[in-house]
């Protein structure tokens, strides 16, 4: 049985904090809303890019906006909720006070808003606006005067324009008044009203017309009780406009909702009484989703399921979101609906679903925001000309359109999610496509219940024949009958229709909770095991707070490694958002303080999921699973709404003065303040109010200063994070850390840096070309003919022609980006410019040169813009300069389809006085994205220049020449390849002969590349850049030189085995990384310290040499001898061991020898090892070599190959590579058909 409860007590426990009346203040008169006219005057058509004017003076005074005032509020103040007069007034009437005549439409409407306090808490306002007749003669006269002035203005304007082609008149108010004196009333009356724009539709004559002014009735609540507040205000308005007086004075109902109606307990519902009947509100239990009363079904119907998912993705990734609609309530419905879907996360940035005209300066905010502005009647599919559009999600609600930012990733399992949402909507009769608001045909209305039926029920009640449920139903019927009129109809509304409306509200509430449960289930699936990756490094709260910025609370790399690949793009972005950081901070703080309510609910759900073991063991192969609690959640909601658990105290007669509370139809009375002040608590402490809603000049200045400081702080944290991420990747590559998805996170950070620069350059921007503020600035500088000359980087190679080739002007970056592709948008070009500048290590220098022309910046920007703050600007550039200490390949790896010019230089060994003599030399450069093809080098030329599609990070280079006798030979030191666009230089060490009859007789070498840092050798000791980006850590030893037997003998068996284990370990770590994070496999196989080099040292250990001075020997000679021995033994039938293995070794060796390529003995051994690893034969070949009778002849007894235990150990180590798919570069295996 429901109990009776009272709301008397703390304001935080009451249903409503304030009741407010806003409207026309007859004492101050008419004040034009200047800011509303100013910010609505300039609009921009997103399709046609046309500017047009809707100047306020061209409109009839009945179409203009005037300043409204807070006429009354009750009580004056409450505990924990200070009253913000300016904010409430602006949000009750966002476009100001409006007037109408009896000939105009005067529909009343409802909207809501939210007000944020300084501590982040929100209160909700619910507003019922209607038009009330103006009884003040002063206001009526003022409106008549404005109409006359408006008429004269257009009369004088049209007269002057007919005589000369001058610009429209901008006469002052004094000139208009003097014009009125020169023209008599007859001339005004004689002039056709149609000659005046807007006059015919909005004329006003006091003797003929009745003037109406808008008035707003508002209830401020601590929780979003949308439906309950809407019903209360609607009943209050109906009581005001009704012919009959309400049962009690309006003060009784307002006093009741302010002081006697409590907030429903968690998991319970509450019935309280309005003017015309009971109203029910409810609050979810602690285990359910938080209260969300805004109709999600309406939001999905307005935008469509796909658009809502796109919008949610934009909000989750903290882009700038701008909602656009004629209806204020639509703005709130979409904004609140989207934020309700964020559970368990919360929006952390500027949140103003309704942005009043005086606050339009916040559209310049260089931070993520979620704001809404009203569409004007004169605009078609248009929005304000915004300075921030590069990362803007524009939501045109009325036209069912969402324009997300470029490159927005898909929400995880988006197709399956959309399908599940469609099923929910269809179950409730809603179409899933935007703009389709049709529902299933409503059942025929039941016959109208007569008053006799109600009388019989009331008689039964008096006789005690009705139980508790029947009594509740009777009260519901009586309330519906009153709402429909005593005769059963009012405006065609039957009792059946009223029942249908209640049923629709119930269905909307059930649909709300089911749609929210679908998204809550998705987040539970994605972050079901997030606690395993939370890092608790601080021993106590004080130490954690002291090192908060420098501490990582979450192992992002390991978390991403456990996720399905299609989800990584979205998740890598989301893990960098403020809402996820706040969520983690709350989790860490829960060790020392109470857990946040949202997180407690979410963690409780995860615990129940773990209890039933519904999470899959392999999250990387997670399958989509539909939400299983939809029906249960809807049942709990339905149970609370159909049967109230508690009943508030009924409204009652108050101790009012005689004559107060008289009913005057259509006029909201002046309420008795002393009665409504009863029981209010004095606010003893002053609470901080948000400055965002303060339109004063000092507050705006303070807000803009906060934006500037925020940009600088964000730049500092972001560059520090990028450096830490990059250094962490290098530690992984050097074997000092665990493998993680570092490159994906690095790309995310660079994308966020692009967003930061766009927001910085967009702050306070006045003039812009296209959607990108940064690219617009570059174009303006280019149009002014400015040049940015930067010092050229110097590389370790001392060749003058190389230094000259990279001496590019500062504008070369912009010029190259402009010529990249016409398909790139302005935002894409700006991002390409940032990526290329960052890779060339000139980002800070280029931006500094951009900002050198302060005269241009003053023309383009408002005085409060970040770029005009010298001290902050210098610090900003300093933080960006720190990124020069690390190497990035962000441009090379992002823009993969562009054409890049390369320069190749062959450097002979200068220490020898042997001239370079080569016959028709050629090169082929290979990278992670492809190869250049064979490029011929002209005779007697050491340098070649060519252009081809981006090769990515370079890995190998084939250098060769034709077989033209013994004179065509050269001792090559290295080959240098320079990327003319990014400035990267790759060094391919050789140190060997290329020619027949010298060295190993090779006419072709496959060289492994290294990225060279841009500094001279004399500065190498001071250079703090990143090490060369190689696939394996550098080892001590010669770079690809001749294999010296003496050196191999100097290495102990322990050292040789350690090198072998290290080479295999590097390969294993390579394959344990995410695919997009793996380095150069060829370098791990064939480079310095690679598998080929280590195995060569193993086979050289203890090798006997009868040659004088221990000249160079080659392992391939030994392999060939063993192969010949096996083939001979096979022919004679003396072959021991596996015939199949012996045949495979002989087959591979003979195929390599038969190859048309002359790669020399070292190259042949390298190819044999690579093919053996690829085909999983190498661990089985080693015992064959060790057991050959030639091995005992050619090796000493202490040699490793003679040690059976060492050979078996090496075979087991190599066997660990069998589980990995090894794909060899074409440059290695070309010409060998195996």
UniProtKB/TrEMBL annotation:
Keyword set, alphabetical order: Guanine-nucleotide releasing factor, Membrane, Repeat
Annotated region (Disordered), positions in chain: 151-173, 1013-1040
Name this polypeptide is given: DENN/MADD domain containing 5B
Domain RUN span(s) in chain numbering: 744-898, 1082-1229
Gene giving rise to this polypeptide: DENND5B
Domain PLAT: 900-1008
Origin superkingdom: Eukaryota
InterPro entries according to UniProt: cDENN_dom, dDENN_dom, DEN5A/B, DENN_C, PLAT/LH2_dom, PLAT/LH2_dom_sf, PLAT_RAB6IP1, Run_dom
Ranges of residues in domain UDENN: 50-594
Family stated for the protein in its record: Belongs to the RAB6IP1 family.
Any one GO MF annotation of this record: guanyl-nucleotide exchange factor activity
A single GO cellular-component term on record: membrane
Upper classification of the organism: Eukaryota, Metazoa, Chordata, Craniata, Vertebrata
Statement: the UniProt record of this protein carries the keyword Transferase: no
SMART domains, per database record: dDENN, DENN, RUN, uDENN
Places the protein is found: Membrane
